[in-house]
Design brief:
By secondary structure, the protein is α+β, with helices and mostly antiparallel strands. It is built from 9 helices and 17 strands.
Length: 515
């Protein structure tokens, strides 16, 4: 039903700001952010929790640090202690945040040493023995974080700490990355002990938080896509009979991990009044000024690097916060925003998205695909401006996830009252396939947003596929019915069915020497 509703309503929508019709997740998507991987937001998920017994909760997952190699030691993928990571919620449709969850990190180096002859010498490694949740004495590097809630403007609103519901502490612990089986024998169990129950100010029920390394759940054929879409069967109809074109290409992110900031919050604590729809996005910010220290700290004692900068560190940062990463709807800043504006988009706010209107009303991606595959019958919709994109990406869809007030703004939008689809029945094509709890009604890890948005870019939502009302070039109608794909399909077995939903991080060495 929703597939039909989506197509019919989008035909009359008015496009005025940005849309997300791209071919890759937000991994290294803008020039500046490639120099700061610790604050590079890669994916943002927001969905009604489908873990048994968690009805009425919403899960928010912000992923950072692309392409984490499991063997990436000796300095693994800690978060930036001089950065501000945020998950923002717009619950009245005005394009601005009403709730902001802020994460700040502190890294402590214990200065563990061994006796080399008669001298105590600091070790060069993050651990000097096996580590478990109950015994961290051999752990040389540890991370903690604070979590705060800001109501109103994220820089001038009311700030309140979120606390551990079991201990009352305002400081939370983060697991080590999955170094390997000899260092951490049962990583799944170890990481699970870092799921904290939390008390959220103004919320009558506790939530949950987990921050740590996970498998990158995004599925995409990056290598072939960015080689001028060097895909054998870019549309399913071109594949031989009986061949699934969505399972022929490699998943370029298989084998990589990512750093996840995962929250589970009662839906009633995120919504406003009787409107069940929320919008969300994630950002990372750095201080405007940085001075490198020509003589960084070399003390053998424990060194703490955190929100209060120490002049003994490798760098000292100060000044106002400057946003350098932004991600709401997936796939926006890769191939929609032109290269000159990618850094500006990352620094912008949803309420100001009108400045990027031309990239949506006259998108370049469909034209590029027509140039590359015109001989195979691929033709870009000859419809300008593209009026079919605004509702899906900017205002929400009437009857599905559009708020009572719908200011056009690029946000991931979720109707918190939508019944969840059981895991066994989830369809990775989401609303296009009739699964109302899937993308773009929020985004679950299983949702194949590359395929969905690629088909949207090529006009699958232009109704009613006859070209008579909107398209002056009816010859393009046939191409809209082709099922475009990057050749990769998500595998449900690669995800968890409970919080934090993304699978256990891949190990640097999967087995111990004694196995």
């Amino acid at each position: 039903m929703y597939s039909y509703v989506w197509r019919r309503i989008l035909a009359g929508a008015i496009a005025c700001v940005i849309a997300g019709t791209a071919l890759a997740s937000s991994h290294r998507e803008a020039p500046f952010i490639t120099t700061r991987p610790k604050v590079d937001g890669t994916d943002f998920y927001m969905f009604n929790s489908y873990e048994p017994g968690r009805t009425g909760y919403v899960t928010l997952i912000a992923n950072y640090q692309p392409f984490e190699n499991p063997q990436g030691g000796p300095n693994y993928y800690t978060m930036d202690p001089n950065a501000l990571y945020e998950i923002l919620i717009d619950n009245n449709g005005d394009g601005a945040e009403e709730l902001t969850f802020q994460f700040r990190f502190t890294t402590v180096t214990q200065g563990l040493s061994v006796m080399a002859g008669t001298k105590s010498i600091p070790v060069p490694l993050g651990n000097i023995g096996a580590v478990s949740a109950g015994n961290m004495s051999a752990q040389n590097v540890a991370e903690t974080y604070t979590l705060t809630l800001v109501r109103g403007d994220r820089r001038s609103g009311t700030v309140q700490p979120i606390t551990d519901a079991d201990t009352g502490s305002t400081s939370f612990t983060k697991p080590l990355d999955n170094i390997g089986a000899k260092s951490i024998a049962n990583y799944a169990s170890y990481a699970g002990s870092f799921v904290h129950n939390i008390t959220i100010p103004g919320c009558s029920k506790p939530g949950r938080v987990f921050v740590g390394q996970r498998q990158d759940g995004f599925v995409v054929n990056l290598g072939e896509t960015f080689d001028l879409v060097n895909i054998t069967y870019p549309v399913e109809e071109l594949a031989p009979t009986g061949v699934n074109a969505r399972q022929l290409a490699p998943n370029s992110l298989a084998g990589y991990n990512v750093s996840s900031l995962a929250l589970e919050v009662p839906a009633s604590c995120l919504t406003s009044g009787s409107d069940p729809v929320i919008g969300g996005w994630t950002t990372a910010s750095l201080r405007q000024a940085e001075v490198l220290n020509p003589q960084p700290q070399s003390s053998k004692s424990a060194v703490s690097v955190g929100p209060v900068n120490s002049p003994t560190g490798a760098a000292v940062e100060g000044g106002a916060w400057n946003q350098v990463s932004r991600l709401g709807m997936p796939l926006v800043n890769e191939l929609v925003i032109g290269l000159p504006d990618k850094d500006r988009f990352n620094a912008s706010e949803p309420k100001n998205d009108a400045q990027f209107a031309d990239y949506v009303t006259n998108p370049s991606l469909p034209v590029l695909l027509q140039v590359l595959f015109g001989a195979a019958g691929v033709k870009a919709p000859n419809v300008y401006p593209r009026t079919d994109l605004e509702a899906a990406f900017l205002t929400g869809i009437t009857g599905l996830n559009q708020p009572a007030k719908a200011t056009p703004a690029e946000e991931l939008r979720l109707n918190t009252s939508t019944a969840v689809t059981p895991v066994a029945s989830q369809n990775d094509l989401g609303v296009l396939a009739g699964d109302a709890s899937g993308f773009p009604n929020g985004r679950r890890p299983i949702d194949d947003v590359v395929t969905i948005e690629l088909r949207v870019a090529m006009g699958v939502l232009l109704s009613p596929f006859d070209g008579s009302a909107m398209d002056p070039d009816p010859a393009s109608d046939a191409s809209r019915q082709l099922h475009y794909t990057d050749g990769v399909e998500p595998n449900p077995a690669n995800y968890l069915v409970a919080f934090p939903y993304l699978n256990t991080a891949l190990a640097g060495s999967p087995t111990s020497a004694n196995d």
